[in-house]
Each structure stands twice: as C-alpha cells, then as structure tokens.
C-alpha cells in the first residue's frame, strides 16, 4: 500500500538522479577531448552585473525584441484612441489613424525624440513595413469577401450611376487641383500625368468597410437607402481599384503607351481569376456546404489562392493589394462560408497587423512640415476639393435620379468617407515617389477630416429634415405596461420572453413587449447582416408563437453596446428592462480579483469610472461589468435573471431582508394577477409583522387572489424548499448581501430575478 502511494515519487527522483549522473559523466569525459585543440575563451575584466547589463541592452536592440516592443506599443495606443473615438460616436478606425500620427514625428517624435529614436529607429522600419503589408493583404482579402456581388448584379442600375459619378467628378477635380499645386509640391522628376493621376484617385476613393459599419450602426441596412449606398460603395470600390491598378501601371511604366502591356496582362489575370479560378473555388466551397467548420486542407487552398493572386499582381506591376482584393471577391458566395473564413483571418488582420500600417503611415506623416500659413491654406483647399467632388457629386447625382434631398445628402455624406482605403492609396503613391512628404501629410489630414465629418454630417442632415412624424416615433406615454428584454444569445432571448410573459399574460391590450438584440458591429459583415439577425431572433419568434404573444423585435449593430442599450431603454418609456446576468468562472476567487483588476487597467472606461469615483478598482461586485454599467445608467427598474433552467414562474419565493425590499411585492402581485403564481414571502428580518402598510398590501392581494400568497416568519430555509421553487425574486442590495456573506442559499437557489429599483 505504501509502495503504491510513493511509487511515482520514487520513480521521478530515480530518473532525475540516474540521467543527471549520466550527463555529468559525458561532460567530464568530453572536456578531455579539448586537449590539443585551440579553444578560445572569453576574458572580461568587467563585473558580472556589468556583463548582464551589456547583454540586456543588446537584447533590447535585437530586431525581434524591438519589433515585439513596437507591436505591443502600437496595439495599446491604437486600442486607446479607437475606444476614445467610439465614445464620441466615431468609427474606431479614425482613432487608429490618429494613433499612428501621434506615435510618429508629428507628436512623440517632436516632444520625445529619444524615446521615438529608441522605439522606432530607422533600421527597424523595414520590418515594420513588411509586416504591415501582410496585414494590408489580409485586410484587402476581407474587403473583397465582404462585397456581395449578387447584390451588385441585382441592384446595380442606380447605384452604378451614382458610384461612377462619385468617382469621375472628384477625379476630374483632382486633376484640376494638381494643375495648381504641381509646380510647388510635386517631387522632382515626377511627370505631371503621374502626379495628377494619384491626386485624382486619392480624391475618388470611398472606404467601403467604414461605410458598411456606419450603415449597420445606424440601422440603415434594411432600408432602400442603406441598400443603395452599400451597393454604391461596393461598385465604387471595384471601379476605384481597377483605376488604381491602371494608374500604378502608368506611373511605373512612365507613359500610357508603355503601360498598355501591363494593363493587358492585368486584364488577362482578371479573366483567368473569374473564368477559371472562381468556378474551381466554388466547387471546393460546395463541399463545405452545411458544415460549421472549415478543415485545414481547404484553408490551405484558399490561403494559397490569396498569396498566388497577390504575387501575380505584384509581378505584373499593379500591386499585391489588388490581387488580395480580387482573391477575396471571387471567393464562394455562400454567406456562412465567407463568415467562417473571415473569422479565421479578421482578428489577426484587424487587431494585430493593421494597426502597424497606421503607425507606419504616421511615421511618414510629418505635420510639422506644414509650418507656414500658405501650406495650411493649401491643405484646406485640398479638403474643400475632396468634399465638393465626393459629397456634392454623389448627392447631386442621386437627386437627379429622383431620390429625395434627405437621402441624396445622406448618400453624399457616406460616400465622402475615405478612411483606411485612402491611406492605402497614399502610401502606394509615397512608395512610388509620386507624392512628396508635404503633400502626403496634407492628404492624410484630408483623409482624417472627411472620415471624421461623416457622423456629424449625418446627424446634421437628420436634424435638418426632422419631421413631426419622426418626433412622434417614440412610444406614447399611455397606460400600457412596457417590458423590454435585451439578450445576446438566442436561447437567452427565449428564456427572458417566457419571464416577460409571466409578468404580463392577462393584460391583453394593456401590455407591450419588445425583444432587443444589440450586436457588436465588428462581428458582422455587410452581406450577411440579415441572416445574422434572423438567426438571433429565431428562438424568440418561435417562443412568441408558442405563447401566442405579440412581440416587437429591435436589432442594432453597435460599437458601444452598453451606452446604446441604456439610451434606447431610457428613451423608450419602458417600465421594466430584463437582461441576463453575465457569469464569470473566476467569480469570488483571488484569481478573479486579479483578473478584474487587470481588466480595469486595460479598459479605459472602467479606469475612468474609478477615477471619477463611480467604481472601486478592487470592487468585489456581485455583478459583471456589463450589468454594472446598465444598472448605473438606466433610469427604470432592471430585472437581472440568473438562469437555472427556467421555464415558468409558477412557484415564486420572495425573501424580504429589510424595509427597502418591499417594492418586490408589486412584482409578486403582477405574477399572481397574470400567471396565477404561488408566492411565498419570507420575513427574514422580522420587519413585516410590525409594518401595518405592508401587511395591508399582502391582505389586499389575498382578497383578490385567495391562497396565492403565504407569509413565512422562519429564518431557516431548507434545501428541499429552495429546490421546489421555480423563481426567486430578490432586491439587488439583498443579492449583494447573499454574495458577500457567501450564503448557503446560493448553491441551491432556483432561477433568480434580481430587481434593481432606481
């Protein structure tokens, strides 16, 4: 018995001793082989500490260590500025663009030159550039996949007219602008044609990914306007990249005649991709139909297609990014398949590699070069030309096609969004030597300004055309009892709907139930948003049909779920918000507290709330951070469900710990009236028996529904009793008390609805 207990330990120790002795023997014997050999030994008079410091400094400047330090810094700064922009209702890409400029010579390089020289030495920029190019190739692959070519084929008539007008008008204005700035700003030795073509294409580009996110976040995707503008942007993207490929060919060849060979090769490449590669990929994609994962051989085929396509266009002379875009566009059109593949690529491309491109662009952007009023006037003139060409060109064309003024101006504002796509074009021009550092800085400022103005412009247009009908869209302040349930998973929505039904079942026309799903905008793509929404609401719709319950569904794509949820809740005149409690596997442990601490440090909003006194950085809250945000910002009662296989609220247990918990009786009363629930009130602190007002309330409930409410005075509750109940109603303060005291109830409680009263 003892041998069995210590066998593993004895074997472990014996193994270590035997093989350590063997290694020692070979080392001693091996040293005898050095006799007669010219062995060079390092002699150093420095101390061991000095040797360590010297080695440490060498390791710090090692190319790999430097690259990793750059990546960590870039991701942290990009996430910080992206978060700030989301909070002011701007796309996070603007923050990432600003982060790049901040880390470049325009700010950090100017005020902290030693730090900038240490983190971004010139010899390290080559590695950063190549890694950022890999990120761009993956990004353009995603952009190509996000294009829904079937929509283009069906709805391209008006959209293509608007799209091409939004290209040709700013393109012409860009050529005209080049005429006035060529002499002063074109690099030496660059032909006017090359310079003018790059300025023109930079004026004409639209950022399809940013535009698609804005359309989703503003719930325009289901409207005719949303469809038109997404189709416009898609057609614009395809056209602009084809023009850019031709422009690159002309610039590299030196003249249009010389570029014809490159253009002909590019046409042959496109024909080959569409007519041969695309059908081949479709057959492979069909093998994947109905599967929830993509196997590794299939992933390898699609990545090889991407790399070979990018390689082909780079060799042809029209840039690898066009090949990546083309590879994405010819992917199998099955929405589920594309979503699965994008999920494999997107996180690495957008979170890890793409911020490197923004910073590399920022390192090239020297706003300090604009050190004269005349230069800022020129920059302003460039911005004005860009806005007139793209905004006015798109809006006036849409109006000419019979679209009303509000929607025409909205199309103009959205098509004027340039974002990351503009930076890609500008960097290509800079690499080719067509754009000087001064004009590059001006164009980067233009890209930032036109992207930043999209949100305020849309808000101003909505304000300008606000009608009385729009003002009356909010729910009327009538006698209906309004319940809003917000869920993140389909199963949660179904459970919360059953609970809402129990509270309102017999109210007939005097109730209103809305089910809301707010999804992260970054998890969806323009082509599959309708499928995503249908999937999210599938269980809710089925449950509502089973219960014969009328439900209003609300769907929104969001960059800031907490704030959007609280805004909709407060604005909608609801009486109760129902949500699920988020759970943590580390809750209550030391590791959980440490993880909570680091999460607050990394998350700027939590740290800001701590500084403002709204939170404690070591807070041991009974709620997850999302729920705390909701409780802090909502102005109506919130019901937080801790779900344990909830089906219905037939037997309900309501513990009353103190006088402030008495509002729970109103919810108990609703369950009795609408669901015939059996309610058991536990007078935990013995305060009910001495309170006439509460006893009268219980008596009035008994008169309406005899034998449906029971008052317990015992403090001890048995496990069997808790297991027999369907639901426990408890106040948020009492729930915190149960968590803090590690109540023995917690392991046996039924599904629990924690109700917070504002």
Automatic annotation (TrEMBL):
Residues 76-459 form the Cation/H+ exchanger transmembrane domain. One of its GO terms (molecular function) is antiporter activity. Its main location: membrane. GO terms for cellular component: membrane. It is found in: Membrane. The keyword Phosphoprotein does not apply. Keywords: Ion transport, Membrane, Transmembrane, Transmembrane helix, Transport. It is a multi-pass membrane protein. InterPro entries: Cation/H_exchanger_TM (IPR006153), CPA2_transporter (IPR050794), Na+/solute_symporter_sf (IPR038770). The chain crosses the membrane at residues 9-28, 60-81, 93-112, 132-152, 159-182, 194-215, 227-253, 259-277, 298-325, 345-363, 375-396, 439-465. One of its GO terms (biological process) is proton transmembrane transport. This is Transporter, CPA2 family. It comes from Chryseobacterium gambrini.
């Amino acid at each position: 018995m003892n041998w069995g207990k210590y066998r593993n330990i004895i074997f472990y120790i014996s193994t270590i001793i035997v093989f350590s002795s063997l290694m020692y023997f070979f080392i001693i014997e091996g040293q005898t082989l050095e006799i007669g050999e010219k062995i060079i030994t390092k002699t150093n008079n420095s101390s061991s500490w000095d040797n360590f410091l010297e080695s440490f400094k060498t390791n710090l400047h090692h190319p790999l260590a430097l690259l990793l330090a750059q990546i960590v810094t870039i991701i942290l700064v990009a996430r910080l500025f992206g978060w700030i922009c989301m909070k002011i209702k701007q796309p996070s890409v603007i923050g990432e663009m600003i982060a790049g400029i901040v880390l470049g010579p325009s700010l950090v390089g100017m005020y902290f030159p030693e730090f900038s020289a240490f983190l971004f030495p010139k010899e390290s920029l080559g590695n950063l550039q190549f890694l950022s190019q890999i990120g761009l190739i993956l990004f353009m692959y995603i952009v190509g996949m996000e294009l829904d070519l079937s929509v283009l084929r069906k709805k391209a008539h008006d959209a293509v007219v608007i799209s091409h007008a939004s290209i040709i008008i700013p393109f012409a204005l860009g050529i005209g602008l080049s005429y006035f700035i060529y002499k002063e700003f074109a690099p030496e030795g660059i032909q006017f044609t090359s310079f003018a073509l790059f300025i023109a294409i930079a004026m004409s580009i639209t950022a399809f990914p940013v535009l698609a996110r804005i359309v989703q976040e503003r719930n325009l995707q289901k409207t005719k306007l949303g469809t038109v503008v997404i189709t416009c942007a898609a057609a614009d993207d395809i056209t602009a990249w084809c023009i850019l490929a031709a422009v690159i060919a002309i610039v590299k060849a030196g003249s249009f005649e010389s570029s014809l060979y490159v253009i002909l090769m590019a046409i042959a490449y496109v024909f080959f991709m569409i007519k041969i590669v695309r059908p081949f990929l479709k057959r492979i994609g069909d093998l994947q139909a109905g599967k929830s994962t993509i196997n590794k051989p299939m992933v390898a085929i699609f990545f090889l297609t991407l790399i070979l396509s990018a390689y082909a266009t780079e060799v042809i002379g029209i840039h690898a990014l066009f090949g990546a875009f083309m590879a994405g566009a010819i992917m199998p059109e099955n929405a589920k398949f594309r979503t699965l593949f994008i999920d494999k690529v997107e996180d690495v491309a957008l979170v890890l590699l793409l911020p490197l491109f923004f910073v590399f662009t920022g390192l090239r952007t020297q706003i300090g070069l604009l050190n004269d009023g005349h230069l800022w006037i020129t920059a302003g003139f460039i911005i004005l030309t860009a806005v007139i060409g793209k905004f006015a060109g798109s809006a006036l064309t849409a109006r000419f096609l019979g679209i009303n003024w509000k929607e025409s101006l909205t199309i103009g504002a959205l098509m004027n969004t340039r974002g990351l796509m503009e930076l890609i074009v500008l960097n290509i021009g800079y690499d080719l030597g067509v754009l000087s550092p001064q004009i590059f800085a001006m164009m980067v400022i233009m890209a930032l300004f036109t992207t930043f103005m999209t949100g305020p412009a849309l808000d101003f247009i909505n304000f300008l055309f606000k009608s009385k009908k729009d003002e009356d869209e909010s729910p009327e302040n009538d006698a209906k009892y309004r319940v809003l349930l917000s869920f993140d998973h389909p199963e949660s929505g179904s459970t919360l709907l059953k609970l809402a039904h129990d509270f309102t079942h017999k109210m007939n026309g005097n109730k209103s139930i809305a089910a809301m799903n707010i999804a992260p905008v970054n998890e969806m793509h323009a082509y599959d948003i309708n499928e995503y929404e249908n999937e999210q609401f599938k269980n809710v719709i089925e449950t509502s049909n089973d219960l014969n319950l009328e439900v209003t569904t609300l769907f929104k794509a969001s960059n800031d779920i907490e704030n959007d949820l609280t805004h909709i809740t407060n604005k909608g005149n609801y009486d109760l918000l129902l949500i699920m409690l988020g759970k943590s596997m580390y809750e209550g442990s030391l590791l959980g507290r440490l993880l909570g601490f680091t999460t607050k440090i990394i998350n700027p909003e939590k740290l800001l709330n701590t500084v403002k006194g709204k939170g404690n950085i070591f807070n041991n809250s009974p709620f997850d951070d999302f729920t705390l945000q909701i409780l802090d910002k909502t102005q109506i009662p919130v019901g937080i469900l801790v779900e344990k296989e909830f089906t219905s609220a037939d037997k309900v247990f309501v513990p009353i710990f103190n006088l402030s918990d008495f509002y729970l009786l109103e919810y108990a009363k609703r369950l009795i009236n609408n669901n015939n629930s059996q309610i058991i009130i536990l007078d935990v602190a013995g305060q009910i028996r001495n309170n006439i007002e509460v006893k009268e309330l219980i008596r009035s409930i008994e008169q309406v529904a005899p034998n449906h409410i029971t008052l317990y005075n015992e403090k001890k509750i048995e496990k069997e009793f808790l297991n027999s109940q369907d639901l426990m109603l408890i106040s948020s303060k009492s729930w915190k008390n149960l968590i803090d005291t590690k109540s023995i109830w917690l392991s046996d409680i039924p599904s629990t609805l924690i109700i917070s009263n504002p």
